[in-house]
Amino acid sequence: MADGNDQQSLSQSIKGRLQEGVQNSVFREKALLDPDTVIDEDRIVGRDQQLDDIITYLRPILQSNRPPNMLLYGPSGTGKSLIINAVCEQVSDLATAQDIQFGVVQINCQTIKSHDRAVYRLVENAAAEAGVAAEIPESGISTDQKLRRFYELLSEYFDSVIIILDEVDLLVGRQRDPNDEPAYSKLLYQLSRASQLGRIEGDISVAALTNDPRFMENLDGRAESSFNPQDVVFPDYDANQLQAILDRRRDAYRDDVLEDGIIPLSSAFAAQDHGDARKAIDLFRKAGELADRQGEETVREEHVRDAQKEAERDRTLTQMQGLSTQKKLSLYATAIVPVYSNRNLNAVPSTVAFRLYQYIAELLDADQKSRDSYLRYMTEAETYNFVTSEKRGRGYGSGVHKEYTFVDDPSVVAETLQEDIRLEEIENNEELIESVVNAQINDFFEGN
Ligand SMILES: Nc1ncnc2c1ncn2[C@@H]1O[C@H](COP(=O)(O)OP(=O)(O)OP(=O)(O)O)[C@@H](O)[C@H]1O
What we know:
Oligomer: single chain
Bound molecules: adenosine-5'-triphosphate
């Protein structure tokens, strides 16, 4: 056990290391790169039309009129939450000045499993917004009783409320039958009807946020007609807009720590997907975190590339968790072909990959599946978007074969899988594997 002096020096060294980390960090105000921060208006880029629309729709609150319901849709990271929250913040300021009790009740539906839970979360959030207790239990009472408490809270404490349902399409609930009404449809109907029927004294309006442009088609007819929203569309950002978004958060970093290429590169990577601002900001932040972790004074392009690799690895890992061992082996054997190949080989011929699969399966003492099974596994890998494939009439030799191209960097896929399946044997035999890969490729191109 450490004695008193040891304890003291240990805690001093922890303090020292903590302080050192803070002082030497490349960040000045990292919160600017936190996805949940509602940034100032002057940092918002390229959403003038959407801001105009939402300002127009919410202005009636300040004239003590009911605003319309709204449907905000567009791919992830296109600013739906940011824009609605930014306008609500300003409405809130002006409403307070006019003595109007305005509230925002927001839930993210992604993790909410049922209609009942959603209503309870609304009660909790409305109570928190009003600064009072929810006063009802989470279970043991009916959903109707919860809804009544929700209406009571709104009527008692607010003149006007915006209910924001983020990721509304994910509030499906427990459908016993695919034809059952999804939970979001029921909730939208109840909330819009309650307002129309005067069950709530003040003015309420629902803003539903979704990535699904066909969301309205899934609504029950009566929900559709009572919800009846104003649409606001959020298109993808292009690389220039992403650059402008990052540029306006440059001050998250200390002066002179960013190499020139950091912002363009982070934006270019994010634009490759669909122009997701969240992704651009995440890369921009992670690059700095990597620089901090390595104790470096500047953020370099290499940090952005490493951050992008890490993000790919995380995504790949999440997607791969569901695959069986045989599927992982098939994908691994295919990925190592371009990794170990001496030629510049992007598209992997299935013939070569299958031979590698057989070799690896033998090396690991695993079951060896047939060529058909291997091809089937790879077709599944295609549906998960790990690879794309093309059929080729073979110029060299005979027959038709498939060629697989990896969507992400194949070395990331191989590394991820290598960590996942028991592959010590592979690590011990890397040179051998490299020679097998190249022998098979040579055989293939020489038509053997
Ligand atoms: N026009 C913009 N200007 C500045 N920052 C933006 C802009 N659009 C989005 N962002 C930032 O990108 C991140 C993601 O934005 P937001 O959460 O609003 O996207 P979303 O469309 O609601 O995504 P999702 O559908 O995944 O919830 C946030 O950090 C936000 O501040």
